[in-house]
Amino acid sequence: MALRQVCSMLFFNIICSSDIPLPLEKKSYSCSQRRVLKDVLPFSAFLMDSFGRRHNYLRMSLTEKCNLRCQYCMPQEGVTLTPRSQLLTAEELLMLARLFVREGVNKIRLTGGEPLIRPDVLPIIAELRKLEGLKTIAITTNGMNLTRLLPSLKKTGVDLLNISLDTLVPAKFEFIARRKGFHKVMEGIEKAIEMGYNPVKVNCVVMRGLNEDELIDFVSLTERKPLDVRFIEYMPFDGNRWNFKMMVSYQEMLDCIKQKWPNLEPVPGEEMDTAKAFRVPGFQGQLGFITSMSDNFCGSCNRLRITADGNLKVCLFGNSEVSLRDFLRSGATEEELLHIIGAAVGRKKKQHAGMFNISQMKNRPMILIGG
């Protein structure tokens, strides 16, 4: 790997000082972008886009199935599930994970559907844990099966937990999720804290007329618990009947919370963080806002997604996908896969189309992407 990366660096040095054209599958790199690449070696050119963004964070969906039916994630009529034979096997998932980690990915998040309903989730995590260079394994879960699996998840090597919870009112939970389960989720959150996860991230999609009146209650949870409550702007996906009037913007949420806690203070974060973080002085936990709609963070995006059926999505809101599964099953070599991945990453746009355009674009329901 080291030799190939050195050769890759030499290649870009030559390109910046000559008229030699780049291969079709790679975008042109300016000399300033080449210097950025040089500064971060070892990191693969295949995972850097034409705007200099390095993609070291991979989200892998383990399943399209879920034991909830959340309104913002799944259409009311449900979804047509991909036949099992067309989903990635554990071996294929791990092969792709190894390839991405070898090229510079150091964080993998397992998503769904609901990842914890996949029967072989623990063996998959155990194999991921063996990958040299993979620093962080995270899981996003609805929390329904979390209490039962937490000891094994901790032992197998899960570093971070994100738990979806959109309301603190049991009856409202059932309305939003179209299933019962509020107390199971709360039990899972408490168990995660008890087992030493710090912080435990709680994802809350805020929808006007449903739960925007609970912002203060959610922030209050962070007073005595090591929670990182993340308020997510309502985003349009196929079948979730997104309406601009239902979207509560980051600024509106922030203003509401500051009425209760005017001394709310920002928390410094990393450049690649998706959330704008804040803390009430004296509180144990913190809160954040994921502002995909009103104030996108595309310029620092470092994330790629692989869906349960093996498609690579370079942007959550993009409708362009490449089937890595098909290339895998047709016998593509690792080097050929890298060129396919590099071509897709190279075509990644500077930013998404904006919320009104996104709402008109064809895309998967969120459950078929990976929450």
Oligomer class: single chain
- What is the number of E strands? 12
Could you give the order of strands across the largest sheet?
7-8-9-6-5-4-3-2-1-10-11-12
Cα-based radius of gyration, to the nearest Å: 21 Å
Task: Report mean pLDDT, rounded to a whole number.
Answer: 85
Give the end-to-end Cα distance, rounded to a whole number of Å. Answer: 32 Å
Largest sheet: 12 strands, mixed
Structural class: alpha/beta
- Low-pLDDT runs of 5+ residues are 1-41
Helix content: 25-40%
Shape: globular
Task: Give the H and E element order.
Answer: HHEHEHEHEHHEHEHEEEEEEHHH
- Strand percentage lies at 15-25%
Count of separate DSSP helical elements: 12
Polypeptide structure, described:
The protein is globular, with a radius of gyration of 21 Å. Helix 4 links the parallel strand 2 and strand 3. With 371 residues, the chain is of the alpha/beta class.
Write the layout of secondary structure elements.
Elements: H1 2-16, H2 31-39, E1 57-61, H3 90-102, E2 107-111, H4 121-129, E3 136-141, H5 146-156, E4 160-164, H6 170-177, H7 182-194, E5 200-206, H8 215-221, E6 227-233, H9 250-260, E7 265-266, E8 275-279, E9 286-290, E10 303-306, E11 311-313, E12 322-323, H10 324-329, H11 334-346, H12 355-358
Parallel strand pairs: 1-2, 1-10, 2-3, 3-4, 4-5, 5-6, 6-9
Antiparallel strand pairs: 7-8, 8-9, 10-11, 11-12
Pfam families: Mob_synth_C, Radical_SAM
Protein name: Molybdenum cofactor biosynthesis protein 1
Cofactor: [4Fe-4S] cluster
